[in-house]
């Protein structure tokens, strides 16, 4: 009888460990850097730039001046973004950052890697990257 209880406890611990290892994109992420993967550009200082991934397959946020959003799907370590919509306000100070971020995520399939509180999105050819940090 003691062996059965022991085996049940071991099984519960193993199952708990397996379920805790599944990483989730859900939540709000702040931009750290973006652009050329070999030499990424740091996010603009003092500019609120974040992306929120919902459980229902929607993402959105603010890329400095304009809001954006779309749908997404995760398959393994890849994320596919639908065409993104964006508000169209002109903000010269954030224009380059906004154009780069929206160009990387809109209608693209990217590889992603979660490491602690950091999310890295990389283009299929490895040339472009977005690095985010969990809020």
Structure description:
The structure is a single chain. The protein is α+β, with helices and mostly antiparallel strands. The protein has a single domain (23-134), classed as Beta Barrel (Lipocalin). 22% of the residues lie in helices and 43% in strands. The protein is built from 2 helices and 10 strands, in the order αβββββββαβββ. It has helices spanning 2-20, 95-105, and strands at residues 27-36, 41-42, 49-53, 58-63, 67-75, 78-81, 85-86, 109-115, 118-123, 128-134.
Write the layout of secondary structure elements.
Layout: H1 2-20, E1 27-36, E2 41-42, E3 49-53, E4 58-63, E5 67-75, E6 78-81, E7 85-86, H2 95-105, E8 109-115, E9 118-123, E10 128-134
Please tell me the CATH architecture by its name: Beta Barrel
Q: Termini, distance in Å? A: 47 Å
Mean pLDDT: 86
What is the overall silhouette?
globular
Helix content: 10-25%
Trace the largest sheet across and list its strands: 1-3-4-5-6-8-9-10
Computed over alpha carbons, the radius of gyration is: 19 Å
- Counting DSSP H or I runs of 4 or more residues, the number of helices is 2
* CATH structural fold name: Lipocalin
Q: What kind of sheet is the major sheet?
A: 8 strands, antiparallel, barrel
**Percent strand:** 35-45%
What is the structural class? Answer: alpha+beta
Q: How many strand segments?
A: 10
Query: Which segments are poorly predicted (pLDDT under 50) over 5 or more consecutive residues?
Result: 2-22
Reading the helices and strands in chain order gives HEEEEEEEHEEE
CATH structural class: Mainly Beta
Integer tally of domains: 1
> What is the oligomer described by this structure?
single chain
